Structure formats: structure tokens, C-alpha cells
Amino acid sequence: MRKFLTPMIAVLSLAGCAHNPSASWVGGVSPKDGKVIGSDLGAYVASQLPSVKSSVWVQPMDGNERGPVIDSLENTLRQKGYPVLPDSASRPTNAHLIRFLVSGKPAWGETNAFILIDGKEASREYVKDTLGALRPAGPFSVRE
């Protein structure tokens, strides 16, 4: 039941909180967990793009805010050799569009992350292990 409710809660909470519906978004996630998720999302993006010659542009959060998720995602892509274009008001035409939504439910120890690569959506649930570290609960689910 929680597997069904958690994504629904995430989507409903996003609808009420987001000022810019096309911005990336993070809520209910600690900076430490944000770094873990950002790194994992970066590795996923790298596994989906055709080559390291592909430029990427990460949709900024509302107000061009930065945070651990976006910093870690971009750093992971840079470490893997992808050119990450700087923040700007709109996406450069030659870049892959990366957008993410991350919603945590700290009381449950769960977090959901949704990533869109040029509009193709994937999601993954994360849970806290017995030591309190955030871990993926399974593989990415891809919406075709």
C-alpha cells in the first residue's frame, strides 16, 4: 500500500508547492540524502545518454536555486565526461534536457525521485537501511 501511496503523495505535494511547474524540485530531503540521490541520478542519466559528447542542461529549480541534489547530479555527469552547460533561463538548443523531482517522507524513511531526460521519465524509490543510510529500494522504473 505504501508503494502506491508514496508516489501519489509526492505528486500531490508537488502540485501545491511548485511555483514554476517546469522547474526541477526537491522537498523533504536532507542535504546528505540529496547528495546520494543526485549522484545516483547522475549515474542513471549517464547510462541513458548516447555518448559523453552529449551536452546536458539541468533544469534549474525555481528561482535558480541550487542544492545538494543538483550539485551532485551535475558533478557526477562531469566526472563521467559529460559537458554540463551552465544555468540559464532557458535550455540551449543543442543540449539534452534533464529535469528532476525529489520528494522525501522522513517519517517513513522513504524518498522518491523522478527524472526526465528529454521528456522520458524514470523513477526510483529510496529507503533508509538499518544504519540510517539512504539506499535505492530497487531499479529505476521507466515510463515508456
Could you walk me through the main structural features you see in this protein, from its secondary elements to its overall organization?
It is a single chain. With 144 residues, the chain is α/β, with parallel strands linked by helices. It has one domain. It is built from 3 helices and 7 strands, in the order H-E-H-E-H-E-E-E-E-E. The protein has helices spanning 2-17, 31-48, 68-79, and strands spanning 25-27, 56-58, 96-105, 110-117, 120-128, 134-136, 141-142. Strands 1, 2, 3, 4, 5, 6 and 7 form a 7-stranded mixed beta sheet that branches. Strand 4 (110-117) and strand 5 (120-128) form a beta hairpin. The longest helix has 18 residues, at 31-48. The protein is globular and about 45 Å long. The two termini are 24 Å apart. Residues 4-18 have low confidence and may be disordered.
Topology at a glance:
Blueprint: H1 2-17, E1 25-27, H2 31-48, E2 56-58, H3 68-79, E3 96-105, E4 110-117, E5 120-128, E6 134-136, E7 141-142
Helix pairs in contact: 2-3
Annotation keywords:
single chain; 144 residues; alpha/beta; 7-stranded mixed beta sheet; 7 strands; 26% strand
Total domain modules: 1
Find the structural class using helix and strand composition: alpha/beta
Number of helices: 3
Report the radius of gyration as a whole number of Å.
Answer: 14 Å
Distance between the termini: 24 Å
**Mean pLDDT reading:** 84
Instruction: State the share of residues found in helices, binned by percent.
Output: 25-40%
Shape: globular
**Sheet having the most strands:** 7 strands, mixed
Structure summary, number of beta strands: 7
